[in-house]
Amino acid sequence: MSIKHVTLVLAFAAVVASAASVASATAASAPAALAPAATAAASPVGSDPSESRRTGIVVATEKAAPAVVSITVRRSSVVAYGNPFFQDPFFDFFGPQYRRKETGSLGSGVIVSKEGYILTNSHVVGASEGGELEAITVTLPDGRQFPAKLIGADNANDLAVVRIQAQDLPVAQIQDRADNMVGEWVVAIGNPYGYLIGDTKPTVTVGVISAVNRSFSSTSDVHYHNMIQTDASINPGNSGGALVNVDGRLIGINTFIFTGGGQSQGSIGLGFAIPIQKARLVMEELIKYGRIREFTTGIYADPNMDQSRPGATVAGIDKGSPGDKAGLKAGDIIYEVAGKRINTLQDIQDVFKLFQVGESVEILYLRLQEKRKALILLEEKPGRRKLY
After folding, report:
1. Which of 217, 219, 243, 385 is deepest in the core (most CB within 10 A)?
2. Distance of CA 173 to the CA centre of its chain
3. What is 1-15+54-83+95-292's CATH number?
């Protein structure tokens, strides 16, 4: 398959005209490393097999699945439409015709607090699609259904927060440390194809972490940074759902997949999740401020790049700014930001789009041919000061 046939697809569920048959996948046997202490091999003949089959994957699913919800979104917009009768020039005086069009989408979300806050993707709630948000409905695995309020959405990071008012909510356990290991088992939990299956309980797919720290930028100005890549199948409707480790802890928000292109829109083993550490930072910003605050480094880069060498020259620094606190000075040459080589001014602008207030960014720079390193803590942009 050539590269041009690979298509980036956001794995949200739209209303489907006809439901395909759903095959249920059952693992023939679990890896020995995932089995609990009392394994089938150690069980006496005739013992209850249910305990021997309670692998780490089963336990992880039992811990995490109750907090994974289905999200139904209804939006409306006013659109122009054509009426063949009025295409006759004689009837031009009637002017354009309009009607209100309603659209719906389905996706997944994860309850992350007893207060009812739910993390999902911004494309699940249609935050970038325009029109009016009519309603958001959240359905829990136990069948309870609640209207939800959109707290905020960050289209640049493809994350959104909605909230429901409810008691006794199951809450996902969050993995605090970003210590994901390539090769470790993970479980993707979500609601592919939503109500077409007619079951409020989420479904589960299993795989491993294939890679970490994958970064992408799309033509829609969405920036995916340090993504977790997994071969656990992520399908339409899984967006906003949970990626958990075998401890049952939430490590990422399932977001998009690569597909085979053409008529193939299913998973081919290339799924990506936003790390929960990044998602939590965005969530806290949206809950506290209702938006993502702009940041500043206080660094002014010389737009006239020296083509004979890589890097951007620091033209000036605001006193007391993050760049100043990190020790940078005018004349320094920044040649790497967060692991990305800087060859143009656009490079430095693009890489900073991946971060937000409160995050630290590592910068490598030259001062009089001496290589140096600085860690810049991004602060909120005051007033109308320049971003870089």
Report:
1. 243
2. 18
3. 2.40.10.120
Residue of 105, 108, 122, 239 marked catalytic: 239
CATH homologous superfamily for the domain 295-380: PDZ domain (2.30.42.10)
Give me 186's structure tokens: 């993970």
Strand-pair partners of 145:
139
State yes or no: is 158 an active-site residue.
yes
C-alpha 350/C-alpha 344 separation (Å) is: 10
C-alpha closest to that of 71 among 253, 271, 217, 209: 253
Point out the catalytic residue in the list 123, 210, 225, 321.
123
CA distances to 205, 267, 287, 373 from 174, rounded to whole Å, are 19, 26, 17, 32
> Which residue reads 């309020």 in tokens?
149
In the chain, CATH 2.40.10.120 covers 1-15+54-83+95-292
User: Hey, what amino acid is at 283?
Assistant: M
Of 247, 285, 286, which Cα lies nearest the Cα of 63? 247
* Catalytic residue status for 239: yes
Q: Locate 183 and state its tokens.
A: 């090769």
Cα–Cα distance between 130 and 123 in angstroms, integer? 11
Instruction: Indicate if 324 belongs to the active site.
Output: no
pTM, two decimals, is: 0.73
- Residues pairing with 313 in the sheet: 333
Portions of the chain given CATH number 2.30.42.10: 295-380
Quick one: pLDDT at residue 303? 79
